[in-house]
């Protein structure tokens, strides 16, 4: 059974690898046997993590909002490991402001990274998979806020909703090229983006509405990520795997 979850021989790239989720995803994929590129806006921010993983890992500078940066990063992956056939679209930011104070610049900045960046990155990686004749996997990191809302993150919620639907669109169009595309939708996992909010009174009230009465951890995402990335999920495409302690189904 463990062979079904093996990623031996796979070439993975994780965007947003300098954050808590991205760093964990890179470790998981590497641990399952993949060659892993840790991508972040500043390569030095992920250099130590890549070095700790060893020969099958490397850091790369990547700005997902810039097509030239994406091309350069994928070129670097190919030069070191071969064609990227496993992409984890994890890069994301948020602007935390009430809707009435949410400036157009805030909206544009979030959309550029969370939605447009995932589109550009997914398209570029998929084009190279097709050109190389390689099957592949794309995992888009969405959020339960793609299906529900909380106050003060209008741009983030809208971007994640768009990413969920983009995942389905990509899955349909890329299936004939043997490329699977799925989304992983975490609930509330403590990250640099939301740490301050969950330390607040309002954040603690949110935690009390989670049926399991706790925030998620990065370890809670290990199994779901491996399922989507490996042959264990070979007949899954266009799926959204929710990992949220029951939060999104709780109406209380």
What does this structure look like?
The chain has 252 residues and is an alpha/beta fold. It has one domain (2-243): 3-Layer(aba) Sandwich (Rossmann fold), CATH 3.40.50.720. 42% of the residues lie in helices and 15% in strands. The chain has eight helices and seven strands, in the order βαβαβαβαβαβαααβ. The protein has a seven-stranded parallel beta sheet with strand order 3-2-1-4-5-6-7, sandwiched between helices. Strand 4, helix 4 and strand 5 form a beta-alpha-beta unit. It is globular. The termini are far apart.
Summarize the SSE layout with pairings:
Layout: E1 11-14, H1 20-31, E2 35-40, H2 44-53, E3 57-61, H3 67-80, E4 86-89, H4 104-132, E5 136-141, H5 154-174, E6 179-186, H6 195-199, H7 201-208, H8 222-229, E7 240-243
Parallel strand pairs: 1-2, 1-4, 2-3, 4-5, 5-6, 6-7
What can be said about this structure in brief?
With 252 residues, this protein is of the alpha/beta class. It contains 8 helices and 7 strands.
Descriptive key words:
alpha/beta; 8 helices; 15% strand; 7-stranded parallel beta sheet; 7 strands; globular; 252 residues; Rossmann fold
Which percent range fits the helix content?
40-55%
The name of the CATH superfamily reads NAD(P)-binding Rossmann-like Domain
Number of domains: 1
Q: If you compute it from the alpha carbons, what radius of gyration comes out, rounded to the nearest whole angstrom? A: 17 Å
* Helix/strand order: EHEHEHEHEHEHHHE
* SSE class: alpha/beta
Tell me the β content: 5-15%
Q: Quickly give the CATH architecture.
A: 3-Layer(aba) Sandwich
Query: Main beta sheet, described?
Result: 7 strands, parallel
Major sheet: order of its strands? 3-2-1-4-5-6-7
User: For the record, what CATH class applies?
Assistant: Alpha Beta
- Quaternary organization: single chain
Q: In terms of per-residue confidence, which ranges show pLDDT below 50 for 5 or more consecutive residues?
A: none
Discrete helix count: 8
Span between N and C termini?
39 Å
- Overall pLDDT metric: 95
Number of strands: 7
**Rough outline:** globular
């Amino acid at each position: 059974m463990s062979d079904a979850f093996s990623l031996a021989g796979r070439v993975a790239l994780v965007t947003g690898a300098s954050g808590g989720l991205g760093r964990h995803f890179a470790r998981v994929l590497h641990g399952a046997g993949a060659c892993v590129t840790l991508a972040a806006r500043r390569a030095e921010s992920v250099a130590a993590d890549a070095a700790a993983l060893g020969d099958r890992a490397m850091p790369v500078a990547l700005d997902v909002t810039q097509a030239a940066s994406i091309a350069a990063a994928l070129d670097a992956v190919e030069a070191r490991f071969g064609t990227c056939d496993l992409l984890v679209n994890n890069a994301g930011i948020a602007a935390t402001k009430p809707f009435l104070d949410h400036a157009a610049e805030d909206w544009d900045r979030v959309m550029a990274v969370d939605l447009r960046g995932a589109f550009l990155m997914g398209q570029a990686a998929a084009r190279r998979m097709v050109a190389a004749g390689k099957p592949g996997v794309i995992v888009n990191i969405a959020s339960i806020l793609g299906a529900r809302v909380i106050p003060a993150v209008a741009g983030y919620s809208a971007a994640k909703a768009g990413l969920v639907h983009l995942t389905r669109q990509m899955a349909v169009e890329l299936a004939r090229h043997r490329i699977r595309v799925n989304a992983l939708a975490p609930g509330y996992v403590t990250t640099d983006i939301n740490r301050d909010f969950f330390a607040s009174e309002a954040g603690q009230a949110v935690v009390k509405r989670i049926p399991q009465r706790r925030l998620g951890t990065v370890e809670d995402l290990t199994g779901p990520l491996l399922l989507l990335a490996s042959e264990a999920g070979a007949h899954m495409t266009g799926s959204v795997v929710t990992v949220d302690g029951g939060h999104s189904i709780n109406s209380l």
